[in-house]
Design brief:
Blueprint: H1 2-11, H2 13-40, H3 48-68, E1 70-72, E2 85-87, H4 91-100, H5 102-116, H6 125-147, H7 151-185, H8 187-193, H9 205-242
Antiparallel strand pairs: 1-2
Helix pairs in contact: 2-6, 3-4, 3-5, 4-5, 4-6, 4-9, 5-6, 6-7, 7-8, 7-9
Membrane topology: Multi-pass membrane protein
Organism: Acholeplasma oculi
Keywords: Cell membrane, Membrane, Transmembrane, Transmembrane helix, Transport
């Protein structure tokens, strides 16, 4: 039975991948629609100029954090490829989403993407993955938080950041990122970069890359980022209200 399922998956992989992409895109569109409605319902909205200034500051902080405060996870976990960097540029995105709503958080993510794109070393692939993860996580977490603003909801939305982040990262790496790099740089070159992963070879590279690199890396980075957001948001919210 298991062999039959495995054979079916292998023979229909292209259809499965296309279906997953379509489902993910539909889910993202639905989230954007809900986000737009949720943000429009937020009461006591600050003046537009004040809001725009804070969004600009958070966008600048997001870019600065991406370029200047990061380190490779491979320093701590030797089986993780060196090109996977821990950074905290999503923290301002979530703070913006918590302060103003999911659309404002999404705007910060898009601004970061646009600013990063000209200096991309991955032909925009890494930046696009960061954008998709940023949009998916800020939409879900901000919609959840703005439904009922309290400590319990803040904890739940922070946990949602981790769950959505990890799922999105797995799908992005499986369906797009790794296949794109292999078509661009060659299978052997990319596989060579993944040889730090125990037991990896041409027959199991995708599974082991996801299990040993993608999942651990994204658990660590999403946990750190969501934890920092939870600790910083309330303090920054109090300061913002006093301005």
């Amino acid at each position: 039975m298991i062999d039959q399922i495995t054979e079916f998956l292998k023979s229909n992989m292209a259809i499965i991948e296309l279906t997953l992409i379509i489902v993910f895109m539909i889910a993202l569109v639905v989230l954007i629609i809900f986000a737009w409605r949720a943000e429009n319902k937020i009461e006591n909205k600050p003046k537009k100029i004040k809001k725009m200034v804070v969004i600009s500051i958070l966008s600048a902080l997001s870019v600065i954090l991406y370029y200047f405060i990061k380190f490779p996870l491979g320093v701590i976990l030797p089986f993780v490829p060196q090109f996977l960097d821990i950074h905290f540029s999503n923290v301002p995105i979530y703070i913006g989403g918590y302060l103003f709503g999911p659309i404002s958080g999404s705007i910060i993510a898009i601004i970061r993407f646009i600013v990063k794109l000209p200096g991309s070393t991955t032909l925009g692939t890494g930046e696009l993955a960061d954008l998709v993860i940023g949009l998916a996580t800020v939409l879900v977490s901000s919609i959840m938080y703005h439904r009922k603003k309290n400590k319990k909801t803040a904890i739940t939305s922070a946990a949602a950041i981790m769950v959505v982040w990890i799922i999105t990262a797995i799908l992005a790496n499986w369906l797009f990122i790794l296949p794109f790099y292999m078509s661009l740089y060659g299978f052997d070159a990319v596989l060579g970069m993944l040889l730090v992963i125990p037991g990896i070879d041409a027959s199991n590279y995708m599974l082991l890359y996801i299990l040993y690199a993608v999942i651990p890396f994204n658990i660590v980075i999403s946990g750190l980022v969501s934890g920092m957001t939870f600790l910083l948001y309330k303090r920054l919210s109090i300061i913002y209200k006093k301005i």
